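Technical note accompanying the year-one report. For the benefit of new consortium partners, we illustrate the data format agreed upon in the data management plan: each record pairs a sequence with a structure-token string. No post-processing was applied to the example shown here.
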Amino acid sequence: MKKIVLTLSCAIFLMSCKTSNVTSTVKNDVSVSIDLVNITDDKVKVTIINPTITTETTTFNIPKIVPGTYSEDNYGRFVDNVKAFDKKGNPLKIAKMDENSYTIYEATKLAKVTYNVSDTFDTEGGAGFGESEDIFSPAGTNIKAGENFMLNTHGFIGYFEGKSEIPYTVEIKHPATLWGATSLVDTNPSNEVDIFTAERYGALVDNPIMYSKPDYTEFNVEGMDIVISIYSPNGKYKAADITPETEKFMRAQKKFLGKFNANKKYTVLLYLSDMAAKDAKGFGALEHMTSTTVVMPEMMPLEALQEQLKDVVSHEFFHIVTPLSVHSREIHYFDFNKPQMSEHLWMYEGITEYFANLFQVNQGLISEEDFYKRMNGKIEEANAMNDKMSFTKMSKNVLEQPYKEQYLNVYQKGALIAMCIDIQMRELSNGQRGILSLMQDLSNEFGSNKPFKDEELFATITKITYPQIGEFLNTYVAGETPIPYEVFFAKMGVTKGKTIATGNPFLKDGRTPLITVDGATKQIKALEDVSNNIFMTSLGIKGNDVLKAFNDKEYNLDNIYDLIMSSESWKDGDAISVTVIRDGKEIVLKGKINLPKEEKSGFMATDKTKETIKNAWLKG
């Protein structure tokens, strides 16, 4: 209410000034200056020129949480030496209220705020997302003077209480050798200073910038310009290496979405981490309206990197559907320091993850069998979590325990919820409608600038679909009843049975290690009993053998992750050589790869009478 009164007062004041030909001195925007040239102690200096403040005190905030992360990360802990000054450069009294907020006194005199920012990548311990106080790397920041700056803008730029809806102008001074990849438009022709504008703070946060030596590719997909920018610290990869496969799946995504998206530009910022150095260790991606930030290990083999990018980038790209185009008031008016979370993570993350899998079978990038395996894997993961917890209650309280520990279920059960809605809609419409058409209808009903009320979404969905969908949402999403997935699969003629899956030679079920490491020597060793590991027995590897090298590349504890990732791309029948140390002697074993096979419960199409509706579901 105070904000509305102030806005009206300013409007009346401006009208009166216009009438009397007097120039107003009211400043109703925020100007930011970031210096990426003069780096001191691995810190970047930021200067904020504030809007006109009419109150005696004001609060300056650094975000506590940002959209898409669902965790309170307290970016203020990476900011220090916060100072406030008047127009003459005299310091004003400032008090730190908590880790992210500062109260500034005599605020009517305030002319600027300055502070230093440290990067988050240097602090990461690698415990994993959600398991430590680490910032999830794609939401983090990097300061590597003269070489790379990952500017997730929420980590560098703060906002004044009550002033987050006014325009921002950001001036970034950077080395001439570095180029800033972003979907923002640089309005300054200089090669050393970039100037960007955003209509409000939320829009600024929604546009990350990565500065590095120019290495990018561009292509156009049905009217959308795609930019892929890459930073590879050791020069292992170039943007051109990943572009062909990335372009392939992004074209498939656009074809899958049809007319849904109207973005003119989309930027992929790919940061490859040097695992041998003090660097980012939280791998994945974070969505934005017109871009995504991605962090992956540089050591990954190209084929494995391409496969990971297909999954994570496609997931983030589909966020243009939800929550970016369809979202609640909690998302639209996101409070970066006192967040109110939405009930509908099943839609924001679940539908997005489902689309990231569905489009691949829909566009022929994976087989039906692969799609069923993926969904079955999600069922297994979901069953390992609290399957009776209300999904809406978990979403609303995701920042608190015991709900916080269930967050990862949004990518498992959330996707399965979307699948079941899709199946029901296909069945009820004789194959004509599905969850993509539902999201198109919701986008028409609301859109990016018209948020819905959390408590009204189920009723709206029921109104534009079928009563059965409303019953499903209330029973299985808001309610605590586990979903009988076999019942829904059966509607499409898909039933449960036994399938054979190819396993990893070093991990059983993708989790249990089939090798061990000597803590003193860092050597990788075969287990004492390898009789059940066909990969090892077929090559003649014996229990307790030291596994020194594979295909002439040596491995130990320091690069064991590299070995695991490399093995993901191995194929049955490919030639391989293994150097082992047995009884103090090196032995080179040569043969062909024979990957372990594991029998698992899975799903398969068995009812030919439902072939037509199944194809409508999977092929569209």
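Partners are asked to follow this layout when depositing records. The two ends are 48 Å apart (CA to CA).
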